Amino acid sequence: MLRTVVYDTKPYDREALQAASEDASIEWQFMDCRLSIDTAATAADAGAVCVFVNDRVDRACLEALAESGVKHIALRCAGFNAVDLDAAKDLGLAVTRVPAYSPHAVAEHAVALLLALNRKIPRANNRVRELNFALNGLVGFDLHGKTAGIFGTGKIGRITAQILRGFGMRVLAYDPFPSEDWATEHGIEYTDAQSLARECEVISLHTPLTPETRHIIRRETIELMKPGTIVINVSRGALIDTKALIEALKTGQLGGVGLDVYEEEEGVFFEDLSGQILHDDDLARLLTFPNVLITAHQAFLTREALGEIARVTVANLTAGAAGEPFLPDTALVDLLTS
Ligand code: NAD
């Protein structure tokens, strides 16, 4: 049996991992806490650990894990900035991740935010529950015939673009590595970033967070936009300069904002803080706007995505324990090949 300690788990993680490992020789130990040097001792005698986006797997933590006999760090997410890969290599620890689980889940959530925001569904729902059936203040606009802009046409951006084409929208896209054949096939037009900002009623962000994309939406970009533009971000919080966003919401330059990610989400998103004091003034301000819709990094949260994350994680844990190759494209540090 491979004893695997799983950090920062929620009930849905546990269910998915258990369901995916019915036929596997894995003994799970599910932890609420995150993995860091302070909690690494909880992995004593384990063969592997399984971590998520907010665990802190730095060199000191990896040294402690290696000392206690851990051989494999299995990330149950795509991003791997939480793990010191050089240190893992030095210490002879294998590291794997789940590079893609369901781009459909994330794209569909982006569109859900857009529809709910434009047609003011949360407000309408709150009203009718109070037996207020008035329609004042609930006017939206037809997406059909409007222009949407997609920043980043990777796996998720492409699906979002195709869904919006299905609504009868004109879709513009910007990506430093355009996929011309795909664009032609789906009637999507590539343009430069400034034209995209200028011409669209809806802008949706689907780029990874890199030094180039950090604050890709800032005061100067927002000034280029048509008054009333809706911005959707399901990618990474720091793609948007939050202070500039708040200013543009106050002046009405932006017509609405749908966020599944937020610059300072760590320690807030994924947690139940009800009854506590929110210390983030920018987030508190964002929550006051009627035309801002926020979800707490849940775009990936479908049964299919959780199932795929669990399937790949279990397959790699099993392969690692047997000294067999990991699934293709999932190894960040592979001891068989390095
Ligand atoms: P991907 O790697 O398939 O695509 C990213 C695209 O962005 C690529 O085509 C790339 O060329 C492009 N790009 C890079 N720099 C750019 C720039 N400066 N301007 C415009 N485009 C640029 O990634 P993906 O699977 O589509 O995921 C996109 C992002 O979605 C991820 O990086 C991640 O941050 C986010 N994500 C969020 C969730 C969630 O639950 N909210 C889940 C999964 C992924």
UniProtKB/TrEMBL annotation:
Question: What keywords are assigned to this protein?
Answer: NAD, Oxidoreductase
GO function term, MF aspect, one: D-lactate dehydrogenase (NAD+) activity
Ranges of residues in domain D-isomer specific 2-hydroxyacid dehydrogenase NAD-binding: 111-299
State its Enzyme Commission number(s).
Answer: 1.1.1.28
Please indicate if the UniProt record lists Metal-binding as a keyword: no
CDD domains attached to this UniProt entry: LDH_like_2 (cd12183)
Say which enzyme class the record assigns: oxidoreductase
Per UniProt, residues of the D-isomer specific 2-hydroxyacid dehydrogenase catalytic domain are 5-325
What are the TM regions of this chain, as residue ranges? none
Family named by the database record: Belongs to the D-isomer specific 2-hydroxyacid dehydrogenase family.
This chain's protein is named: 2-hydroxyacid dehydrogenase
- Species of the source: Haloferula chungangensis
